[in-house]
Write a structure and sequence with these properties.
With 332 residues, the chain is mainly β. It has one domain (3-331): Beta-galactosidase, Chain A, domain 5, CATH 2.70.98. It contains 2 helices and 26 strands. It has helices spanning 3-6, 58-61, and strands at residues 7-12, 15-20, 26-31, 68-69, 86-87, 105-107, 114-119, 127-136, 142-151, 155-157, 159-161, 164-166, 172-175, 182-184, 201-202, 208-209, 215-216, 220-221, 227-233, 240-244, 249-255, 262-269, 282-290, 299-300, 313-315, 321-331. The strands form 6 sheets. A 9-stranded antiparallel beta sheet has the order 6-7-8-9-26-21-20-13-18, with no helix packed on it. A hairpin with a 5-residue loop joins strand 2 and strand 3. The longest helix is centred in the N-terminal third of the chain and has 4 residues, at 3-6.
Length: 332
């Protein structure tokens, strides 16, 4: 594969964006507006060009920005998950799905502002074809994205999008309207590191219960502690914004919440000390999801759990299921 084949770039009056074949990951992204500094909101993991990076699993090798996860979720059962969480067989060992770990194929587009990638998973899965379109909005610092999911047979799969945003631009504030509760991961997201009380259900992200009896404000960054956290915020009610106070921009994420009703938050705040993370990953994943955390491939929650009804996205053959979403830079 040549470097030119590995990634392609969109450029328009209000910015530029790079899309890569591996995992169909989108980053870096740069938004521009008169009188403002360039705004690059998407996380790019620092190890992609380091020696030995090629040995990491596909999803880690060039981890960056935003990408689709179909089916979404880990393929190993976390230690400490109770027996009341029924076991499920993920069917493969591709964390966050085959599509997150393999090269997609470029497709021709008549739109000079669009890039298109497709992927056909191997036999043995109900997935027939994924088509990802990234389109620049001609008159705005924004990108419109579409994911088309084609299946061969009726199925219900956990599905998520995976926007991962930088937290190294100074003070940032999360604006996440939601009508339902936030639900903490059922076990520590990173054993020996995570602060949140596992399994707790609460309404105020500004006072997330900690295991030591205190609270943690998950709307203002940087946090006072280094940690790794996972939680799911249910019934998201509108666009989500991350305001970067020091640079005069906000990143807005909007999506079809009829299909993906919740947002899983991945707070990666220098908590992972092992390679390749090495205590240097500072990012916030805001992941539109239909499923149970990242556990839907390996476990089913007990009856009565706050996420028990989150079975995944119901998919039918014959016509693709379309997920529409938008990333926009908003001068503030």
């Amino acid at each position: 594969m040549t470097d030119d084949d590995r990634e392609r770039r969109l450029a328009w009056a209000h910015g530029e964006a790079t899309l890569q074949r591996l995992g169909a990951m989108l980053a870096p992204v740069c938004f521009r507006a008169p009188g403002r500094p360039d705004f690059q909101p998407m996380q790019v993991a620092p190890w992609a060009d380091e020696p030995g990076a090629a040995a990491w699993p596909g999803i880690l090798r060039r981890l960056r920005g935003e990408w689709p996860c179909v089916p979404f979720g880990r393929t190993d059962r976390p230690d400490g998950l109770g027996d009341d969480w029924a076991a499920r067989d993920p069917g493969d060992d591709h964390g966050h799905g085959y599509a997150s770990n393999h090269d997609w194929q470029w497709q021709a587009s008549d739109d000079p502002l669009a890039l298109v990638l497709t992927l056909e998973p191997p036999p043995g899965t109900p997935l027939k074809r994924l088509t990802r379109t990234v389109r620049a909005v001609a008159d705005a610092p924004a990108l419109e994205l579409t994911l088309a999911i084609d299946v061969d047979a009726p199925c219900t799969l956990p599905v998520a999008l995976h926007p991962t945003l930088r937290l190294d631009l100074g003070e940032a504030e999360l604006e996440l309207p939601h009508a339902g509760p936030a639900v903490a991961y059922p076990v520590p997201a990173e054993p020996g590191v995570s602060w949140l009380a596992p399994g707790r259900v609460y309404t105020d992200l500004r006072a997330a219960p900690r295991a030591d009896g205190g609270t943690l404000d998950l709307t203002r960054f940087p946090l006072p502690v280094d940690t790794e956290e996972l939680l799911q915020v249910t019934a998201v009610g509108g666009p989500v914004r991350l305001h970067h106070r020091g640079v005069g921009w906000a990143l807005q994420l909007d999506w079809d919440r009829r299909l993906l009703p919740d947002a899983m938050l991945w707070v990666s705040h220098r908590g992972r000390r092992h390679a390749p993370w090495n205590g240097r990953h500072l990012a916030l994943g805001i992941e539109p999801v239909n499923g149970v955390f990242d556990l839907g491939r390996v476990a089913e929650p007990p009856a009565g759990h706050a996420l028990a009804a989150r079975r995944g996205l119901a998919l039918q053959p014959g016509a693709p299921t379309l997920l529409h979403y938008r990333l926009a830079g908003l001068p503030t």
